[in-house]
Design goal:
Two copies of one chain form a homodimer. Chain A has about 350 residues and is of the alpha/beta class. In chain A, about 45% of the residues lie in helices and about 15% in strands. Chain A is built from 13 helices and nine strands. A five-stranded parallel beta sheet of chain A has the order 2-1-3-4-7. Chain A has a two-stranded antiparallel sheet with strand order 5-6. Chain A is globular. In chain A, about 50% of the residues are buried. The interface of A and B includes residues 20, 96, 313, 315 and 318 of A.
Chain lengths: ~350, ~350
């Protein structure tokens, strides 16, 4: 839920647990957050780094160890406060600690608010592959407080906005799910002012994206079919992220997921045009946003073969070595399980690198 | 399901998957099993040790690595063939690999057939605590073929039989779930000939135990309440196992779980008599089985305090440091969430060590 006051939203949840059975797992960037400090008095907490490079089994072990040292029982509550890397790690650790303890997500980045902290995906990177070990383990609740975004660096904001744009491209446009009267989520997102990023106009867009994602997840929690629409942009995006061709970096040097997804969406929109006859307009609109705000990917054409090989190993593939994408026929009309040949993947990369 | 021919039971399950997407995780003791060898031609397999000491995160990593090296996708099947340690490890690795791949259990020990491979508990030992990291992740199917038991060492047989005795003690004795006309599972188990261990008379007892466990698990899959009846004997049993006071060892030196559970049941039957007025008869019957077949625990009274401390850390506890047991009012009438004081726990240990 999107809340206007994090304290009054958190209090009734914490009241359901014994006070000595609530532990906090917190992004170390929030060490000095005045919003949080009141909760740390007398409550166990651990501060964790949030680099993508530390989204590892070792960090999961640190969290497990912290739970054991806090004498957390199965009746306890883990409160995960931070970005998507942190909530993914804490969610996995909580779901596997003593066969599962409750986890509450408090996402503090736009990316985590609109994507990572809803839908129950948890996990970590293993053997250099993103989220290749993990679980579907929904949090007991997700408290979204846009106030965190006031101090979010612009690159982090844009990273989250890319996932919102993805939701706008794939959200099925039925009358009952339209974001604003007269047009859809995609148009509303294009109209939002990315220069001044007003929070009051952003809150309803966050709500619409979370609601769109929740509808999809409720219909297909374990990604057997429909949920794959949310993977739009991610087949290419994950490979670009794994090979570190992403342009946007956070202040701590972490590669930003949303930038990779934005580049991935351009490659996959190109394939949507070529293979499914999608109109060119969304591709042009997204390319304009890239040049105006995100910048081009860090292109090294010599990485082309490695990118294709990474896509062939993607966990989203139904068959070994066969690249699987979600594409769109038009905005709001996604098509899952599109098999891409290595040649087609190369063509889409060439297009992306030519921009 | 209990089957009379493992090959004809396995074939239709394997047929549901692409052949290159089936991998075997096999107990290394079965290396030369003629039953299995036909499946290993052209199919990826890994042989794993099954010592309790190797029920570790490192072994889970070995299994994950094997899955990646086999190019297993999310549409694949993991076939776990072995005892409970192996099916617990393979089940956890499968449930977390790429957020979950199907797992088929083929238990080869009596313990795994009647307990570990049904009910979906998976996991490994961490920080010296049994199964302290894990998940509820039911297999797609469990194929029970009693033929494996022909070559099972007697200690392994007795270890499994102890878990069957536990099921007999806690299974609710309603007319519709009676094992044999006129009396219950407990009496039928006491009548079974442990000197000659005939397989034909054992098969219906295995079926009754699996059915009893499945009824409990279906009613409470995540152990929020009722399922705790299956923990009878395990609060003391796990502590005895962790401190290695178990008498029975397998040929490879592994401490046998069922022996620990049998000693644990004697301690918890003692508490059932003292605290809940349970008749003494089942305690006497179980003690007789211990002296006739299992032998006494390896008693070192100096470990008494350490055993109590271990029980206070048990993941089954609802509150930190409070020992939680399942006890029985009589055979077939279990009572969950009985809080035991350290003094009572000590008294039960004194009784057990005095036998």
């Amino acid at each position: 839920m999107v809340c206007t006051d994090i304290h009054s939203a958190l209090a009734p949840v914490l009241a359901r647990y014994d006070q000595d059975q609530v532990v906090f797992v917190v992004d170390e960037n929030l060490r000095s957050s005045s919003v949080l400090s009141r909760y740390f008095i007398g409550i166990s907490s651990v501060l964790l780094p949030v680099h993508e490079s530390q989204k590892s089994l070792e960090t999961v072990q640190r969290i497990w160890d912290f739970f054991f040292e806090s004498n957390l029982t199965r009746r306890g509550l883990v409160v995960a406060v931070g970005g998507g890397v942190l909530t993914d790690l804490a969610g996995f650790a909580a779901a596997t600690y003593k066969r599962g303890v409750d986890c509450l997500n408090i996402p503090t980045t736009l990316l985590a608010m609109t994507d990572a902290s809803t839908g129950g995906k948890t996990g970590f990177n293993y053997r250099g592959l993103k989220n290749s070990i993990g679980l579907f383990a929904p949090p007991v609740e997700t408290l979204i407080w846009p106030g965190w975004l006031e101090t979010l660096p612009p690159q982090q904001f844009l990273s989250g906005y890319a996932e919102m744009l993805k939701t706008g491209l794939v959200d099925v446009r039925r009358d009952d799910v339209r974001c604003t009267k007269g047009d859809g989520l995609w148009e509303a997102l294009l109209r939002y002012d990315l220069d001044t990023t007003p929070l009051d106009a952003l809150a309803p867009l966050i709500e619409a994206c979370v609601a769109a994602k929740e509808r999809v997840v409720a219909a297909d929690p374990h990604e057997d079919g429909l949920r794959k629409v949310l993977n739009f942009g991610h087949t290419f995006g994950h490979a670009l992220e794994e090979i570190q061709m992403v342009n946007g970096k956070s202040s701590n040097g972490k590669w930003l997921h949303g930038y990779a997804v934005l580049y991935g969406m351009i490659a996959e929109l190109y394939l949507s045009v070529v293979k499914l006859g999608c109109p060119k307009e969304p591709l042009q609109q997204l390319t304009r946003l890239m040049t105006d705000y995100y910048g081009r990917p860090q292109c090294k054409c010599s990485d082309r073969a490695a990118l294709i090989a990474l896509m062939q190993q993607d966990k989203k593939n139904e068959r070994a070595a066969q690249i699987n994408c979600t594409l769109i026929r038009s905005v709001g009309d996604p098509v899952i399980n599109q098999v891409i040949t290595p040649a087609e993947a190369g063509e889409a990369l060439d297009y992306l690198f030519s921009l």
